Amino acid sequence: MVEPTWNSERRLTAISRASLSVPARQAVADKQVLPDRTVLDYGCGRGGDVRALQHLGCQAAGWDPYYLPEAELRRADVVFLTYVLNVIEDPHERRKTLQAAWDLADTVLVASARLTWERSKVKGEAFGDGLLTSRQTFQHLYGASELRNYVEEVTGVRTVSAAPGVVYAFKDETARLAYLAQRIVPDAVWLASEDTTSAIAAVVDYVERRGRLPRTEEVPYPMAELLSHLSPGELRRLVRDSADETKVEEGMKRTTLNTLLFLAVELFNGRGPFSSLPFSVQLDVRAFFSSYKEACQRSDRLLLKLRDDAYVRGAMNASKVGKLTPTALYVHQRAIDHLPTVLRLYEHCASIAAGRPQDWTVAKLRHQGRAVSWLDYPDFDTDPHPRILSSYQVDLKTLETSHTSYADSKNRPLLHRKHEFLAPDDKDVERYKRLTAAEVKAGLYEHPHLIGTENGWQAELVRCGRELRGHRLIRRTD
Ligand SMILES: C[S@@+](CC[C@H](N)C(=O)[O-])C[C@H]1O[C@@H](n2cnc3c(N)ncnc32)[C@H](O)[C@@H]1O
After folding, report:
1. What is the DSSP string of 365-421?
2. What is the pLDDT of residue 1?
């Protein structure tokens, strides 16, 4: 075996993986890795992702210049370039490597790199445009938008940040737009159907949610078979007789707004022609707008409104969900789709630019300036006052990102009045409201400046002679 001649010990950067890497997990969750797609892990290191993907039933193969140089390099639908770019000390070779990975991809390249917010974890001396560690390994840590721009520049296509430090570059516009559409309005879940009656019920449900009849191409195959003996006219009549008109009207409104949102996000990401839109979106545009031009004009206006402070502030005031503070609106993940469309657009634009982290609970949208943070409270549902674990922020004006981990903090910020982050009809709202009312009555919110962190809150609980048992406030027993 001829070992590559590198100026740094790149082979030492490859770790043994017990489970899928963040980029591979993201691509699986985003339905980019599918059983009928081939996968190549370019620079696969010790091959942990390849094995895990094969285990999931994927046709995955790997290649690595040090660990697996003899493997055959074959084109694949999905090519991963996972944490390779950041370990290459020669900028020229870095670019060639990215280009080679892109050339091997038939559908999508998933390029990832470590980000600048990991700087405190990497100790080393300045070397070229990065750092050389004491183990002689090199790291060029990327800014989130630096990585995205770099991949765009080398591949020559528009990219989307799938997660922090994970960028998708698609071989054709249709695949990129299908991904965007799926991300903004996930595919409808069809009700199960075993016979014609339940298949009709499923179509009625679709019509009530989407506001229009599905086309045969949009209906899952077994259901289309069950309905095949009905003419389009008969099906239309049956649905009209059973569908709830108010729900259909709400569905129409929702789809109109979702379409505007999609087109505005698409404009933010770079707009393609009508024919490259996903088929269902084309049908939505035809059903709910006079023309594609009209839909685009309205979505352009929506994107412009995002720049208007007074408009954004007004939308936050009018929002039926979320907790508004003097600096920002905070919304739980479960309530985010209930935000006014301009605020959903705000969050989507930030996520396309910098990647939404895989784990987050509450989104924070600033109303002064434009910045979105995704805050992770892993115990939101079980802890009456959940503690923050991490926050990832992107400034939409500068596209700078920052990350804060509270994992080692002894006095973490925590949340109160959890119901305010959720939609009013959320199943947990009443229970959280009852707790808040009991806490207010016990005098626990009399000194708001003291209760924002664990220690202060604990001290106030003691002062008021109370303790928490689950979501119940009881008298202290000690
Ligand atoms: C940090 S490891 C990542 C390994 C693997 N992708 C993972 O995430 O587990 C970096 C890998 O890049 C490989 N590598 C270094 N230079 C490369 C190049 N020019 N082309 C492809 N891979 C390269 C190294 O051999 C090493 O295995």
Report:
1. EESSS-EEEEEE-TTTTT-SSPBP-EEEEEETTT--EEEEE-TT-SS-BB---GGGG
2. 56
Identify the residue whose C-alpha is closest to ligand 1 atom 4: 45
Tokens coding 145: 């938008």
Q: State how far the Cα of 42 lies from the Cα of 61, in Å rounded to an integer.
A: 9
**For residue 322, is it left (φ>0), alpha (ψ between -120 and 50) or beta?**
left
Q: In this structure, how many other beta carbons lie within 10 angstroms of the beta carbon of residue 96?
A: 13
Sign for the pseudo-dihedral over CA of 349, 353, 359, 364: negative
96 lines ligand 1 (CB under 6 A): no
The minimum-distance atom of ligand 1 relative to the CA of 81 is 6
Enumerate helices (H) and strands (E) in the chain, giving the number of each.
15, 17
The verdict on the CB of residue 13 being under 6 Å from ligand 1 is: yes
Please give the model's pTM, rounded to 2 decimal places: 0.90
Find where tokens 């994927």 sit: 58
**Percent of the chain's residues with pLDDT above 90:** 86
Which residue is closest in CA terms to ligand 1's atom 22?
43
Q: Where in the chain is the domain with CATH 3.40.50.150?
A: 10-171
Encode pLDDT of 48-96 as tens digits: 999 999 999 999 999 999 999 999 999 999 999 999 999 999 999 999 9
pLDDT higher than 90, residue 270 = no
Does residue 281 have a pLDDT over 60? Answer: yes
pLDDT tens figures, 130-161: 999 999 999 999 998 899 999 999 999 999 99
CA of 85 to the centre of ligand 1 (A): 8
Among candidates 360, 370, 357, which has minimal Cα distance to 329?
Answer: 370
C-alpha to C-alpha distances, 206 to 212, 216, 254, nearest whole angstrom: 8, 13, 13
Q: Is the CB of 83 under 6 A from ligand 1?
A: yes
Bridge-based pairing state of the strands 166-170 and 159-163: antiparallel
Query: pLDDT-based confidence at 18, cuts 50/70/90?
Result: confident
The pairing of strands 390-395 and 472-475 is: unpaired
10-171 homologous superfamily: Vaccinia Virus protein VP39 (3.40.50.150)
